[in-house]
Amino acid sequence: MPSTNAYAEIWLDGEKVDQLSSNAEVVEPIYGKTYLPRKFKIGLTIPPTNDVDIFAQDMGFIAIVEDGRLTGFNLSIGGGMGATHGDDTTYARLGSVIGFVELKDVIAAAEAVITLQRDHGNRQERRYARLKYTVDTLGAEWFKEQIEARAGVTLHPVKAWYFERNGDQYGWIQGENGNWHLGLRINSGRLIDRPDSPLLTGLREIAKIHTGHFRLTCNQNLIVADVASADKKKIDALVEQYGLDSYKNQSGIRRNTIACVALPTCALAMAESERYAPVILPKLDALLDKHGLLEQEIVFRISGCPNGCSRPYLGEIALVGRAPGRYDLRLGADFKGERLNVVYQQNIDETEILNHLDGLFQRYAAERHEAEYFGDYLLRAQIIAEPTQKRIPLVLETV
Ligand code: SF4
């Protein structure tokens, strides 16, 4: 928990809202006086799902479970999505997996990563202020040594893990305690009532009877969590009544789409994103249907600018806004969030986007191997070049 008063320093009518704020200066042991150079994102994931896009986080923990027991985490540092068009010194980066941390050492190791970024992160140039640039400047090996020295812990060789997928799973999933969790697809995270789609009212009705809790996912979706077996039917009835079960009828690409807000909300947007998703998705569905691929799961991301809030550099297909109606078409990330995509076409409009994808879907349908994902096919068929940065574990203890 932070010791800082920063969160309490809220002013209303000229007076500080929280009494804490008027206390004498508090020494914050981790942030110090300077805080961090920029935002800092932390993710945790339990294989085989990578639903938090762990390698897009500044610091990521991949749970390692051995003989049914959580023994610790593989530690990933330096992931991040943001970039600037035309500036090759800024780039998306996958986190580097630098070692396995025993459970007892996790907090100490995490604090060391944060304080290293506090002390060595770039404070002169805001665009280089994220941890990913510090890691590339000083080296992942340097970080590993420094973490061990600062925290007094050992980073062991990385332990093998396996991800099946990123993105969310929909429908009912049973948890370890026997309770159930219902994953619902919420397009672009907009939980609002529309004339033909009263989603917000539906969720309110569920909230009246639900004794568990609600979780927002990293993919703009929602989980009705901790439902007893006896309550599933009641919730199912409401989900159906209010049209919250759209995931059942959505194409594979829709189930795996994320769009950032962009226009009109975001002042940095160069092109539409959230409002463009419902425009282009029916056209993509039509193309996929034409080639017998409507059910194929494909990770699709749209961002209104290269800052990458929808994590577009991890999309098997991604559109990154350049100007109104114009996007970079990026292709070839994998389905697990372990490989970045590459630019396939720059600054093209919708007609060109659809023409390119039509041809690629046709080839994919004809040439793919069994269970081969679209991004993997594009790489194997050498339609795209190998991305220049791949996540390469230092040393795998077991394979
Ligand atoms: S990616 Fe989207 S939400 Fe993020 S800054 Fe760009 S336009 Fe705004």
Description:
- The protein has 399 residues and is of the alpha+beta class.
- The chain has three domains: 110 residues, Sulfite Reductase Hemoprotein, domain 1 (2-Layer Sandwich), CATH 3.30.413.10; 81 residues, Sulfite Reductase Hemoprotein,Domain 2 (Sulfite Reductase Hemoprotein, domain 2), CATH 3.90.480; 121 residues, 2-Layer Sandwich (Sulfite Reductase Hemoprotein, domain 1).
- It contains eight helices and 19 strands.
- It has a five-stranded mixed sheet, with helices on one face.
- Strand 17 and strand 18 form a beta hairpin.
- The radius of gyration is 22 Å and the shape is globular.
- 39% of the residues are buried.
- The structure holds iron/sulfur cluster.
Order of helices and strands: EEEEEEEHHHEEEEEHEEHEHEEEEHH
Quickly count the helices.
8
CATH topology name of the largest domain, in short, is: Sulfite Reductase Hemoprotein, domain 1
CATH level-4 homologous superfamily of the largest domain = Sulfite Reductase Hemoprotein, domain 1
Main beta sheet strand tally, sense and closure: 5 strands, mixed
* Structural domains: how many: 3
Mean pLDDT: 93
| Portion in beta strands | 15-25%
Unreliable spans: 391-399
